[in-house]
Amino acid sequence: MFDERTLAQSREMADKRDAAYDKIVERFGNSAPAAARDPRTHSGLPIKTAYFPHDVAGLDFGQIGAPGQYPFTRGNLAAQYQVMNWANQPVIGYGLPEDTRARMDLLSARGMTGYFGQKFYNLVYDLVSHEGLDPDHAGARGRVGQCGMAVYSKADMARLFDGMDLTKMNVVHITYYQVVPALAQYIAYAEERGVSPDQLRGNSMNWYHQSAYVGMSAFPPENGHRLAVELIAYCAKNMPRWNTTNLFGYGVEEAGGTAVQEIGLMLAYGIDLVRACVQAGLTADEALMRFGFQIAQANDFFEEICKIRALRRLWATTMHEKFGAEDPRAMHVRIHTHTSGACLTAQQPLVNLIRTTLHAFGAALSGVQAMEVSAYDEALSIPTEESATLALRVQQVIQEETNITRVSDPLAGSYFVESLTDQVAQAALELVDKVEAQGGYIAAQQNGWIRREIEDQAERWREEVNSGERRIVGMNCYQAEEAEKAPEIFRVDAEPERVSAERVRALRASRDAARYDKAIKNFLDAAHAFAAKDYHQLGDGELMEAAIEAARADATTGEMMGVMKEALGWRAPHEY
Amino acid sequence: MNTEVQTTTPEAPKLGEAVRVLLAKPTHDCHDRGVRLVARKFRDAGFEVIFSNFLLPSEIINTAVEEDVQVIGVSTSAGGHMPVFEDLIAGLKENGLEDVILIGGGVIPADDEAVLKDWGVKAVFGPGTTAEDAIDLIRAEFGGPA
């Protein structure tokens, strides 16, 4: 990258500077912060206190490349935000479907815009749906419409979407493991509106892999993996505009993992997933075409940026070299940033607005495709209308006022950023090697290695916070002097619970019982057959077709998940 | 009911000496980073920890009876905690387990915390507290090294 003379100069200047630096630190003696002598990223990677040309001289310039060119370190496309901003994707969902619809319309009216100016709705289901229950189940008490929308059937889809043009909007269905019922109900509803699956745009989560590090009950790892492959194969044939899979790096960092673990584990899972898709008869390009990534943007400003640049490069090179991916779209890492919720504090909650602004700013500098900015009151409750709007405004201020959207990958070429990008990439590859040595991601999940590794880091974080080594404003330093005034918090009232339970009972009473019985029995048979299949037999579409027919017959989420739990197994993930 | 029984170290106190703690998390609440850390810290502190997921509060009661625990900790970060505690307290009474100490943790608004304490919940460990705070409370109740 540099000629010999420049490199010699660089080293000479660095030596001089380092000597001067050491003198300054010496003068401070024991009062110098530990980070002055041993600076590290939040992942624990050693860094230098100043960077020079010779620090990046060993890097392969081809690995950095250009925006829109393989290996896409600098971004997926030649244009970043010059012609189109990143999509504003706040997560929406609470109460009855009608409540959620009102919040969708409100944010839309306040300027929330998706790709190509289309409507874009990032919709989260409630806790009851996540558990695979119906609202009249005893376990649903107090949880209907909490942390998400109370949507459990094709009929609820109508309450959510009637009057909207399904072909001109993107709908992200944020489920946990009720991926199949939710998509089946959406497809069945769209059919009634005269819209076929191939016209639908949006995302399924398809993220069973998160049970390696997230605690809620789940299908066994092997069966989750097979469900993921099945949906990818189904969509490859029937839903070309549907994004099939969300790689949930975000959950790794939220569970306490590091930036290195976040991208390393996503790459390791990606390898296992594509390997299984290839076994099921898909090409790498077919399998990979509609993957998305949900990535955290947390506190270590530069490491988080470098993490994203490293992920783009590692993903493209791995998928190309290992699986023969050729289509650029199959090698792209499309990122939905979610600013870190775990970095937010309950203390002095308005300070969270400053944190989320820095997170969003870092994500924008890294060139991500979409963003959800956490609301400042997330450590306290579901966001209020005011806090949800302010979170959207954070994105809009960066987009409209800072002028950073004019230049693609503006940090490229920074000695520090390029050096750290490579360092994060190397560390992530080492992690991938460790996972592969255990037989791949699913194996490393089954033996508990992934969960242990992340828990170790969560513990390290807590120790650092407790000892004050890691400082968190308002929490372990600069605490409020007076007792804090409790902010207004958002509460979902009990009415949705009553109404939802009534609705689901009415639906069961009014639907065509014969058609339902036949469809749910058929779905159960298909689920049992699915459980017995090898990877190479996956992708026949039988499970999805049976699910869609059940949804047409007004099967509820609880009923459909009941079938899947019975056929595939369902337990706390630490038990597998 | 999903349980995972583990003691910290081979030299954990003999049966009858270690405080037995049941830590429970709703099956659909993915925010388990805190409670899993608390489980580790409790084990390090010499408590015998049973970690479980639950769908219904009755499952917690059943495990508490089977495992003969002295402390139940419920971690909840996704709302819906009030009915859980309500049912738990009723269930403890029904089973003659009034002396079992009930603690809460996670994201529980201050208003709810006040109500829970009225109901008899010993303490709520929310944001800003540490596992050590909970360990101190349990040791204050049952003795053991400070």
* Percent in helix of chain A: 40-55%
How many H/I helical runs of chain B? 5
Number of helices of chain A: 23
Strand content of chain B: 15-25%
Task: Please report the total strand number of chain B as a whole number.
Answer: 6
Q: Considering residues with a beta carbon less than 8 A from a beta carbon on another chain, report the largest interface and each chain's count.
A: A-B, 41 and 37 residues
Mean of pLDDT of chain A: 94
CATH superfamily of the largest domain in chain A: Methylmalonyl-CoA mutase
- What's the alpha carbon Rg of chain A, rounded to whole Å? 24 Å
Instruction: Fill in the CATH topology of chain B.
Output: Rossmann fold
Oligomer: heterodimer
Determine the N-to-C terminus distance of chain A: 50 Å
Query: What fraction, in percent, of the residue positions of chain B are helical?
Result: 40-55%
User: What is the total domain count of chain A?
Assistant: 2
Main sheet characteristics of chain A: 5 strands, parallel
Number of strands of chain A: 10
Q: What is the CA-atom radius of gyration of chain B, in angstroms? A: 14 Å
